[in-house]
Amino acid sequence: MSEDSFAFRLKELLEHKKLTLQAVAVTLGVSRTAVHKWTRGGEIDYDNLRKLSALLDVNWIWLRYGEQAQQDAQNSTPQSLPMTDLRRKHTAQIMESEARMKLAQENARIVTWEWNLLTDEVTYSSNVEKVYGWPVKRNEDFWSHIPRDEVPALQEVFNRSISSGQPCDTDFRMSTPEGEVRWISSRATPLLDDAGRALKMIGISMDTTARKAAEEAMRKSEERLRTIFELANDAMAFVDLKGYWLTVNQAFTRLSGYEPDDLAALSMATLLQSGATLLDSILATPLEVYQQVVELRHKTASPIQVRLKARLHLDLHTGKPEQIVLILTGV
Question: Which of 75, 99, 129 is the last residue in one of the domains?
Fold first, then answer.
């Protein structure tokens, strides 16, 4: 290690002032790993460099770049660009754009973050506590609020992304101080140097608790409907808009003699009298329940008379017909 290096000066100062890596990490609000990497020649950002130099009571330019750089800086004449009308306009536009972006980000409960893989430092947007439920200033702050048994799998997701250089998407859970469990969806991508090594990872995270709750409610609702469908006494079936059978319940099998696999290539026209014109009649009444007594062809026995009730199932978003629901009862 060169004596004219940031790492050498830092180690000498820490030894002289009898400061441990942990003490520096706690004071600066970073991880011990980050401080250790600085003593090994790792990169340090400007804000932490200024805080570190203040802690050690030395000039930050000298600490980072050495005595010659400090002398050059002291002997140089400060230069500044004139604030022209064009620069004022561009500055105002940038400030307005950033304000709009921040407002949209906070309203959408989106957190932006950056992880320096060389120093282990993390930087989060100012709304992180609102979204996560906790302030996050160090990596340890993040991992301590993930369910312990879920940490290895989440770490593996990030490790694969870092080693492959490919983006990653993942969902994870966090516990808030109130004991609430929040679902967070995160998307991140590593930033690589010219040699293909990951230097940083940048990402966005969004609170998707409401979406997860809606998905769970939908899943439970579908399970209830599936149970009702299977246990109903009446024969029930779903048919596509061309009249082909999609699925039937056990009561339909008992009534018709056809197993679900038997119906895979069959249509309404095969099993129901006047099936082709029947389909047209059902499609012509999208908002009403269509009823008619028809003849059902049994697989192994004589045809039977059944009362048919049919209604189109409409897509919730487009309002267009999606499939047909049939109920058949013996006459």
Answer: 75
